[in-house]
Amino acid sequence: DENFYLQLLEDLKAHMGENQFKNFMHIIAQETGIELLNRKITNQSGRKTLIQSLKDMRKSDYEVMTNSRHKTICGMISYKRPKDNLQMKNISDLYSAIAPNNQLAQSNQVIQN
Fold this sequence. Notes:
This is 9443_t:CDS:1. By secondary structure, the chain is an all-alpha fold.
């Protein structure tokens, strides 16, 4: 039979290819309402968003690890979002170091203290 080699293998479990996975991530982003304009969506960015969202919902580290498939808490730490007030303080300190005489930098220091 000339179509012998063109048969579908329905019982074969194959890994998802790179292009199929990228398309899958874009479909998920569109269906969940994530803005894709000027953004690169990858499996790592999706994983990071998942972990940050679960932590924002005050889920325990164990609950987050079961979804992210991390085996240790140390492996998950790099995905955590810094605390907002700590991040604002660091930005303020950096801005003060760059422009110490600026009125905005001085007013931010007063707010932080």
